[in-house]
Specification:
Blueprint: E1 2-7, H1 11-21, E2 28-34, E3 48-50, H2 53-59, E4 64-67, H3 74-83, E5 87-90, H4 98-111, E6 115-117, H5 125-136, E7 142-149, H6 156-160, H7 168-171, H8 175-179, H9 181-191, E8 196-203, E9 212-220, E10 226-232, E11 240-246, E12 249-254, E13 257-263, H10 268-274, E14 284-290, H11 297-309, H12 319-338, E15 342-343, H13 348-360, H14 376-379
Parallel strand pairs: 1-2, 1-4, 2-3, 4-5, 5-6, 7-10
Antiparallel strand pairs: 7-11, 8-9, 8-15, 9-10, 11-12, 12-13, 13-14
Helix pairs in contact: 3-4, 4-12, 5-9, 9-12
């Protein structure tokens, strides 16, 4: 039985605790928790409860940690856990920049410990199906991809509720690094890193924040296809619409449904050059697949993490995979800051330097609108 400790009992940490306490993770049990705010001692009866991670690590009695603290603590806490000899699963983003993410991957490799990243959207049947279609060649050569992901609406109180939210120091970004990092991860998982991109970001357009709350990005995929990614936390109700224009099929994913238009007996290119009709269009077969539920989500990632620790399965949610979305998000910000195209592989060290300069002039919110702000930077250093 793999014994797991959780650091941070906010909404996500609480979800992980519930999954473990309710035996939703085969072969794993909750051994201890670390949280500075008061916790429900009845709920965690029989478990060790800490308010200091160093004391928790020194006491031991567990095999792995789930790190569910604020974004800016993910890298240092995961690094500390690995170096102290524990397996670790870290929430997204695994670090604030890709250079730190790749350093974590290297530390995990050298330590021989399993490091997983919470890439839970990969468990969604809809995205798994799209990836399968792309990899199998069912869609054919990809000519264009467009993803508008603007249903991440957040009111200003969301950012004002915690001193670290909406700041360069606390999150190192906004909609790209916090909300849409999930979608960017799915993009990298399905299409890989682009050859180049150009992004335009609006900083504090809809909220009283330092970071970006709207982004429009143009990308060139590895095969030369032109693509766009748009996201915002300032639109309502917004939309989540992914379009893939291929040579064998045209695919639209929206509202939990996948609409597939397959070209009958030929590719779009062969019809384009072969038809004799000046206003002709190819024959298509239409299929619509509706997906119910979002898959195993967090529980699925934790289960795979436990299986990988026990040598029963290959780790699917690796730090190398987690670093892909950070590279794309970081590159989008770099492009907006410099007003230039950014090519891959991009300069991780340069981005970290630029981010450090932003952080140097950043500030945590002085007067958050709630009374439960915790200084995690001091608590978990």
């Amino acid at each position: 039985m793999t014994k797991i400790g959780i650091v941070g009992l906010g909404p996500i940490g609480g979800l992980h605790a519930d999954n473990l306490l309710q035996n939703k993770i085969p072969g794993a049990e909750l051994a201890c928790v670390c949280e500075q705010r008061p916790v429900d001692e009845k709920k965690f009866a029989g478990l060790r409860i800490y308010n200091d991670m160093d004391k928790m690590l020194s006491a031991g009695g567990f095999d792995a940690l789930i790190i569910a603290t604020p974004s800016f603590t993910h890298f240092p806490l995961a690094k500390k856990a690995l170096e102290r000899g524990f397996h670790a699963l870290v929430e997204k983003p695994m670090a604030l920049c890709s250079e730190d993410a790749l350093e974590l991957a290297d530390i995990a490799k050298r330590s021989g410990k399993v490091l997983a990243v919470m890439l839970n959207q990969r468990t969604a049947p809809l995205y798994s199906k799209i990836r399968e279609m792309v990899e199998s060649g069912e869609i054919g050569r990809i000519n264009r991809v467009s993803w508008t992901m603007s249903n991440w609406y957040r009111p200003d109180i969301y950012f004002a509720s915690s001193s670290w939210k909406g700041t360069w120091k606390g999150e190192a970004g906004g909609v790209l690094i916090n909300q849409s990092i999930h979608n960017i991860d799915i993009w990298a998982w399905i299409f890989g890193l682009p050859k180049t991109l150009r992004a335009w970001c609006q900083f504090g357009k809809y909220h009283n924040i330092e970071v970006e709350d709207e982004v429009c990005c143009r990308m060139e995929l590895s095969n030369g296809a032109s693509s766009t990614f748009i996201s915002s936390t300032g639109e309502y109700p917004g939309s989540n619409r992914l379009v893939i224009a291929g040579d064998k099929a045209f695919v639209v994913a929206e509202s939990g449904k996948l609409k597939i238009f397959r070209f009958v007996n030929e590719t779009l290119e062969s019809y384009t050059y072969g038809t004799k009709y000046i206003f002709g269009s190819p024959e298509v077969e239409e299929e619509e697949i509706e997906f119910f539920g979002a898959g195993e989500q967090h529980a699925g990632v934790v289960s795979n993490f436990v299986e990988a620790i026990n040598g029963d399965a290959e780790l699917l949610y690796t730090p190398e995979q987690g670093a892909l979305s950070l590279q794309m998000a970081n590159a989008m910000l770099m492009s907006a800051w410099t007003n230039k195209d950014v090519s891959f592989p991009f300069d991780h060290a340069l981005y970290k330097k630029m981010l450090s300069e932003k952080i140097a002039f950043s500030h945590l919110r002085e007067n958050p609108k709630t009374d439960f702000i915790i200084d995690f930077e001091k608590s978990f250093k």
